[in-house]
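Deliverable D2.4 — example input (structure tokens):
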């Protein structure tokens, strides 16, 4: 079984073991909003820590900080302006770190984002120490000042935060890192090829003597010189420097042409393919992980919907009436919005109308959950939802058809019995008396 297949099977097994209880998500993810979290803390998490607008603002601040560092390096006569910008950026980063500490608490340095949070905190703390030392303790600091200036260069490392903020950059970087192993072995193959060719050229061209052969000794005098010459030819296939050598012998011309084709063009294609394959695999793996996370959240959401159904079923008969549905509709809207589904009462009313095929005013729990699934499905899941809806419609239509046929059969039996009774009455009537009691 391949690695990707094993990953899919593990995720499938994990999905089956997901507890549909309302507290499962918080237990697996310490950064999620627990039940005892205050409303203000939830608001801070939704708006600042997980809010797209604030994170986009922080990304712009990081880019601005990097631009100021570059300008500070080149335009030194405006140091006062760059310091003002740096202090402003530092103030924003301190506020952002304080909000993150307030929301995450002990989960700041744990979980999947623990290392990146610790890295950001280190950069902010070093910036605060730099500000205290340079602004408040002015003067000649000696060795401490040199250390502070060296640590100040760490500010440029904030650009790495963009990789986790911008998904395309994250995908490219992670795909490149995953393909680093394959690139290493391609480099080893390239080095072995250069070494073999260098030995051949050193023993042939480098061993030639004579005044006209000085260029051979310069480029191919030793194995290292030969490898470097071939590497230059591989990275930049400029044949002008090799024209004299190639024209001197048809065999050498054939050797260098073949080397350029396989050593430069083919090797570049192999590297491009290896890196592209790594990025594609990372993209597919990331899509599977996102789909698994969505399925896990949907499992938890369906569990909460089931609990909502049980609470709405006031009489406990296992069905929800239209009145019970309307009474708990505000709580259902709030539940949907807490998971990022913004529907109003009219939209959710459609679910009840869809699953109530017989218009009896009641729905069962499974019918209710299947109808709600259509509101939480992805675009790729819509055909499956339509098929399920079509299947449910056909099942209920068949049931209604059987019910109608049974009722019609009963009506026919009743009519036959009535006709039989009328015939018996007509037979018992006196002669000359018409049926129905008329003469």
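Example output (designed residues):
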């Amino acid at each position: 079984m391949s690695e990707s297949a094993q990953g899919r099977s593990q995720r499938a097994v994990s999905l089956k073991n997901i507890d549909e209880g309302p507290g499962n998500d918080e237990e697996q993810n310490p950064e999620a909003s627990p039940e005892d979290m205050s409303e203000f803390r939830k608001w801070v998490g939704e708006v600042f820590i997980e809010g797209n607008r604030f994170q986009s603002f922080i990304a712009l601040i990081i880019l601005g900080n990097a631009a100021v560092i570059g300008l500070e390096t080149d335009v030194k006569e405006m140091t006062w302006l760059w310091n003002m910008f740096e202090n402003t950026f530092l103030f924003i980063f301190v506020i952002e770190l304080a909000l993150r500490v307030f929301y995450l608490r002990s989960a700041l340095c744990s979980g999947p984002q623990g290392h990146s949070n610790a890295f950001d905190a280190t950069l902010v703390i070093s910036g605060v120490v730099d500000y205290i030392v340079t602004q408040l303790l002015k003067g000649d600091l000696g060795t401490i000042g040199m250390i502070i200036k060296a640590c100040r260069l760490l500010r440029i490392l904030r650009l790495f935060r963009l990789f986790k903020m911008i998904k395309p950059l994250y995908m490219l970087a992670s795909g490149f890192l995953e393909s680093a192993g394959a690139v290493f072995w391609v480099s080893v193959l390239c080095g072995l090829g250069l070494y073999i060719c260098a030995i051949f050229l050193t023993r042939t061209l480098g061993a030639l003597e004579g005044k006209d052969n000085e260029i051979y000794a310069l480029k191919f005098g030793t194995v290292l010189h030969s490898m470097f010459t071939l590497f230059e030819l591989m990275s930049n296939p400029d044949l002008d420097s090799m024209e004299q050598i190639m024209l001197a012998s048809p065999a050498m011309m054939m050797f260098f042409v073949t080397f350029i084709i396989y050593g430069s063009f083919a090797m570049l294609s192999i590297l491009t393919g290896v890196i592209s394959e790594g990025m594609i695999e990372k993209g597919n793996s990331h899509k599977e992980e996102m789909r698994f996370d969505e399925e896990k959240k949907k499992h938890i959401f369906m569990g909460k919907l089931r609990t909502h159904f049980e609470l709405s079923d006031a009489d406990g008969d296992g069905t929800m009436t239209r009145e019970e549905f309307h009474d708990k509709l505000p709580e259902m809207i709030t539940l949907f919005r807490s998971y990022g589904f913004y529907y109003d009462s009219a939209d959710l009313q459609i679910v009840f109308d869809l699953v109530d095929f017989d218009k009896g005013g009641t729905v069962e729990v499974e019918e209710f959950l299947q109808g709600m699934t259509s509101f939480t499905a992805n675009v790729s899941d819509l055909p499956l939802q339509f098929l399920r809806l079509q299947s449910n419609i056909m099942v209920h239509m068949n049931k209604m058809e059987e019910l109608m046929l049974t009722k019609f059969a009963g009506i026919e039996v009743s009519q036959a019995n009535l006709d039989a009774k009328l015939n018996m009455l007509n037979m018992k009537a006196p002669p000359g008396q018409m049926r129905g009691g008329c003469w």
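The CA atoms of residues 91 and 128 lie 9 Å apart.
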